[in-house]
């Protein structure tokens, strides 16, 4: 009897332990699946959709309370508590086809009604496609997370764990989306929260004026940074080689992607003087939408201390190109080769600058554009010493050895690479990605490049300085990259 009682007690302890283990395993599966179902759509679910004359990016993320945000770069964002549930929905205006918009607002009432009906239908289709995309990413994220938890616990039936996690993740996000849809109240935007330039309504002109008037303090900070950079480099250049670059015959300032930053031109002028550059090359994207209102922010390019050469980016428009052509000392290059400080400079503008759409060229279009440039360079009896384009995919696809220096931007990521006698240089974003750069948790740093060139039988890059400035912390980082010895 005693042995029987012991066996029963041992069986109860074992069953209790198994139940406890299953409980913890179930909790682990649930928590990891939920984490994966949230992470995947929040970080990978963003998608851009054409809606009438607009291109809009939609994003989903978890939140403490139901929130909708409308983002209007470079002006700011409008948010409101529009629904119930732990869901934040964001719609960002990426591009405007101003020609199509002009046709829309100038059409007769019947055509306007028909056009707006189609726009509403496009918006509804985009919302449904976006919801399916978010649910799919939630299911995939939950399945992967559950499979990982099953692997950690060494479960033999990983596919069951994965299926359960995927189903649970998709169901959880589907419920949150359904709750948002069922309780959505667009009237909540009558009491919105405004951030960015929109805080200073009544509207665009005042927003632009405020941006310009508030730029003085930031400009003062950036000027102090520029002077510190120059003083530090003076001390570096007093050191023996390889720190000095006194043998450079030509110094080029490379700037790019201002994106309406009101003091980007000011800091470029400051560093052009500090480093005593011979000329500046700007690889485009000065604005966001290419409107004449934004052209007012370009006045900082006037009275630039050195010759300034520009290739257009995808955010330029015919209106902006027209405004730029009136600035003394600024030369727009699009297929032309000019001589600057004894170097041959060729610039090729972005194809999108000829239209009113800011959508970037596709990777396939970038590849085709680079192939056309490669063929043209190979046929030239006197190829350029410096090639300037906007898109980084085009720049990086230029064949090594065809030209000593390739300058580009677009990606907002500063970099320097040397391949086969060619220096590939991306100045990053001299405007800190504009307003978009301030929307991240860590604001994007202002960046530019200084290129040191030796004139021989063929121009040769000696070194490249990548300079990153932080107007918030009043700090900077310096990275000098020397070209490999041949």
Topology (SSEs and partners):
Layout: H1 2-44, E1 47-51, E2 54-62, E3 67-72, E4 76-80, E5 87-96, H2 98-106, H3 109-152, H4 158-183, E6 193-196, H5 204-213, H6 215-237, E7 250-255, H7 264-274, E8 279-282, H8 292-295, E9 308-310, H9 318-324, E10 330-332, E11 337-340, E12 343-347, H10 363-379, E13 386-391, H11 392-396, E14 405-409, E15 415-419, E16 422-426, H12 434-438, E17 446-454, E18 460-470, E19 475-482
Parallel strand pairs: 3-5, 7-8, 8-9, 9-10, 12-13, 13-14, 14-16
Antiparallel strand pairs: 1-2, 2-5, 3-4, 4-6, 7-17, 11-12, 15-16, 17-18, 18-19
Helix pairs in contact: 1-3, 1-4, 3-4, 6-7
Arithmetic mean of pLDDT: 78
Largest sheet: 7 strands, mixed
- Write down the domain tally: 2
Percent helix: 40-55%
N-to-C CA distance = 91 Å
The chain-level structural class is: alpha/beta
Q: Which fold name fills CATH's third level, the topology of the largest domain? A: Purple Acid Phosphatase, chain A, domain 2
Biggest sheet: strand arrangement: 10-9-8-7-17-18-19
């Amino acid at each position: 009897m005693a042995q029987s009682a012991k066996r029963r007690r041992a069986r109860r302890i074992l069953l209790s332990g198994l139940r406890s283990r299953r409980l913890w395993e179930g909790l682990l599966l649930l928590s990891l699946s939920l984490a994966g179902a949230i992470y995947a759509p929040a970080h990978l679910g963003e998608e851009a959709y054409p809606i009438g004359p607009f291109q809009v990016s939609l994003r989903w993320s978890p939140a403490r309370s139901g929130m909708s945000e409308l983002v209007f770069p470079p002006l700011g964002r409008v948010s409101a508590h529009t629904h119930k549930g732990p869901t934040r929905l964001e719609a960002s205006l990426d591009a405007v086809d101003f020609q199509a918009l002009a046709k829309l607002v100038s059409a007769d009432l019947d055509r306007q009604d028909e056009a707006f009906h189609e726009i509403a239908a496009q918006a509804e289709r985009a919302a449904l496609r976006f919801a399916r995309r978010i649910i799919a990413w939630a299911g995939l994220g939950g399945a992967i997370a559950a499979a990982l938890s099953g692997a950690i616990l060494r479960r033999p039936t990983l596919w069951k764990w994965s299926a359960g996690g995927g189903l649970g993740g998709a169901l959880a996000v589907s419920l949150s989306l359904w709750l948002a849809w069922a309780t959505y109240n667009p009237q909540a935007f009558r009491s919105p929260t405004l951030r960015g330039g929109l805080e200073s309504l009544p509207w665009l002109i005042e927003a632009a004026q405020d941006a310009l008037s508030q730029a003085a303090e930031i400009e003062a900070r950036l000027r102090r940074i520029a002077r510190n950079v120059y003083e530090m480099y003076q001390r570096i250049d007093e050191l023996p080689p390889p720190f000095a670059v006194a043998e450079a015959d030509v110094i080029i300032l490379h700037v790019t992607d201002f994106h309406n930053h009101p003091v980007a031109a000011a800091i470029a002028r400051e560093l052009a003087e500090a480093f005593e550059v011979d000329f500046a090359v700007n690889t485009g994207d000065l604005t966001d939408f290419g409107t004449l209102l934004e052209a007012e922010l370009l006045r900082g390019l006037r009275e630039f201390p050195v010759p300034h050469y520009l290739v257009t980016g995808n955010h330029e428009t015919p209106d902006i190109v027209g405004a730029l052509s009136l600035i003394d000392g600024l030369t727009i290059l699009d297929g032309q080769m000019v001589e600057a400080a004894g170097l041959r400079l060729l610039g090729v503008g972005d194809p999108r600058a000829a239209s009113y759409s800011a959508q970037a060229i596709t990777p396939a279009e970038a590849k085709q554009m680079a192939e056309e440039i490669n063929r043209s360079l190979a046929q030239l009896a006197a190829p350029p010493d410096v090639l300037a384009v906007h898109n980084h995919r085009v720049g990086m696809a230029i064949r090594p050895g065809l030209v000593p220096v390739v300058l580009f931007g677009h990606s907002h990521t500063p970099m320097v690479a040397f391949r086969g006698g060619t220096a590939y240089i991306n100045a990053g974003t001299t405007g800190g990605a504009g307003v978009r750069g301030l929307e991240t948790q860590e604001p994007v740093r202002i960046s530019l490049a200084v290129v040191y060139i030796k004139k021989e039988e063929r121009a040769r890059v000696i070194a490249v300085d990548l300079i990153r400035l932080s107007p918030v912390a009043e700090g900077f980082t310096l990275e000098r990259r020397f070209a490999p010895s041949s």
